[in-house]
Amino acid sequence: AAACPSDCIYIEAETDPRPYEERIGRDERFARVYNIDYGRCIFCGYCVEACPKDAITHGYNFELSVYNRADLLKTKDDLLITKQKQSKNYRVALSSEDVDSEYKEV
What we know:
By secondary structure, this protein is an alpha+beta fold. It has 3 helices and 3 strands, in the order ββαβαα. It has a single domain (9-94), classed as 2-Layer Sandwich (Alpha-Beta Plaits). The model has no long low-confidence stretch (mean pLDDT 76).
């Protein structure tokens, strides 16, 4: 959040309450609250470079069109994408194949 020049990322960190032996990783902190306001984001990439765990990426996300500006505020649960939430075009854009390959005539 400190690397963002437009101040569109809000993070509240929390310490892992589990005993050290039960933790999956060695890290003791995690993001309890993670919000990003894509209405303010300028897609500069500073957050991608500053993230120590490579958890933030900028891809070919063209599904940011919304009718309400409030829908551009994404929470941690919104950003944890599942296959049910992905559209067909989103998976193609992130794959290594040509984006227009499914639309070409054989």
